[in-house]
Amino acid sequence: MLLGTIVNAVAIIIGALLGIIFKKMSDQMNQTMMSGIGLVTIVIGLSMALKSNNLFLVLLSIVLGGVVGTLLQMEEHLEKWSQRLERKFGHNNQFASSFVTGVLVFCVGPMAILGGLDSGLRGQHDILFTKSLLDGVTATIFSSALGIGVLFSAIPVFLYQGLITILATWITQFIDQAMLDLVIQQMTATGGVLILAIGCNLLGITKIKVANLLPALPLVVIGAPYIQL
């Protein structure tokens, strides 16, 4: 159940250790690796998005979710929260600065939520495996510049994503199997659209504020039962 989260935490640790050992990596190598991860992320997003047999519900959830997220300024609030933490811990303590930076980068984002949900609801870890590659490379870059605190950020990542997975698994006990399958199908497709957006952002194709689209996930869960009516 927690395989994806365990792999993610281990990837951060290994990446951070490599960064400490090898210090500087060339910008060209970093860009090449990030581009490869972006391409894989797009493929995973597409494969998830095409699982729905009712793309209208997915589209409606994305549009309405985007409106709600924009009105709530979710992306902006996340950025401000991150900046406040960095200002609080950033300059006086190098360990605290690198630790907080790692936690923010690895936890604050749709892939952590979507990956944890996918592991708990479907037992599928593809999102977290892809996130592990991304986080491993990022941890290497950050630790080479900021220090060993990045390595210890793997602990809150494990606790945060693990809790999401456990809660998602627990919820499945209280839902009829047929309805659960329908909800998972629609949620997977909607999550796939968000993952696709993340991949496009990684490649520099777009600058989509993915956090503003997160309300689409609860909206598609609410709307899924009405497909059968």
Automatic annotation (TrEMBL):
- Note the Pfam families from the entry: DUF554
Which key words are in the record?
Membrane, Transmembrane, Transmembrane helix
Coiled-coil ranges per the record?
none
State which residue ranges cross the membrane.
Answer: 6-22, 34-50, 56-74, 95-117, 137-170, 182-204, 210-227
User: Cross-referenced InterPro entries, in alphabetical order?
Assistant: DUF554
> Under what name is this protein listed?
DUF554 domain-containing protein
